[in-house]
């Protein structure tokens, strides 16, 4: 069960990243090829996703950030993030769907900037052709996949394994294997050693005050 939960987590996180990346890529591509009559001439304009559905960039980046949060989220936060992913996917599909349903209206800002034609009615009358490219449908599909991923997170999130940290206790042993035996030099501040250890420490300190070198063993021989 733990391995299954880990596999579901990995697949759904990767799915969120892939769908968000696809939406971001689609946003940067041409969605509509528009032909507009201006006087006696016809102007052809390529309309990118950044114009037709400008919100997709922010929504896609939010989806990528959400995937990162999923890797460390607890069970309750996973539910919140799953619901948020559904909302993000719905918004991406809605933005792309509106552009697909009315490409002339989605291209209005670019048409006005290029030709000076303003007003929804004037733009609709001036557009003679508006051909959608596959990138518009890719953006819509990315939103659908994001919604599906969000539903998957809501359903399976409680079964995902949590993040764990393993700690190994440090145990001191003496040379004979007795646990907890520390040398006098390793005694922590505030703890007491044996009487002999305290006496040796006092003798060593007195020798230092007299200027004796504790590393000089010549005097012991």
TrEMBL record:
One Pfam annotation, family name?
Trp_oprn_chp
For this UniProt record, give its keywords in alphabetical order, as a comma-separated list. Answer: Membrane, Transmembrane, Transmembrane helix
Where would you find the membrane-spanning parts of this chain?
Answer: 12-32, 52-72, 79-100, 135-156
Q: Which domain of life is it from?
A: Bacteria
Supply the name of the protein.
Answer: Trp biosynthesis-associated membrane protein
Originating species: Cryobacterium breve
């Amino acid at each position: 069960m733990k391995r299954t939960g880990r596999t579901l987590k990995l697949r759904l996180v990767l799915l969120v990243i892939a769908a968000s990346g696809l939406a971001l890529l689609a946003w940067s591509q041409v969605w509509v090829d528009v032909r507009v009559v201006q006087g006696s001439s016809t102007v052809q304009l390529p309309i990118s996703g950044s114009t037709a559905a400008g919100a997709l960039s922010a929504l896609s980046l939010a989806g990528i950030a959400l995937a990162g949060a999923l890797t460390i989220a607890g069970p309750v936060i996973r539910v919140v993030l799953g619901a948020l992913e559904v909302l993000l996917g719905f918004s991406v599909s809605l933005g792309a769907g509106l552009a697909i349903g009315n490409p002339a209206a989605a291209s209005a800002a670019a048409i006005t900037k290029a030709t000076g034609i303003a007003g929804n009615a004037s733009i609709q009358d001036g557009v003679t052709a508006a051909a959608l490219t596959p990138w518009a449908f890719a953006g819509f599909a990315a939103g659908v996949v994001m919604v599906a991923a969000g539903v998957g997170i809501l359903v399976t999130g409680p079964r995902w394994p949590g993040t764990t940290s393993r700690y190994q206790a440090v145990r001191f042993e003496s040379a004979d294997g007795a646990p907890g035996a520390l040398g006098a030099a390793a005694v922590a501040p505030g703890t007491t050693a044996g009487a002999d250890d305290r006496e040796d420490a006092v003798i060593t300190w007195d020798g230092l005050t007299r200027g004796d070198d504790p590393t000089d063993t010549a005097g012991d021989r």
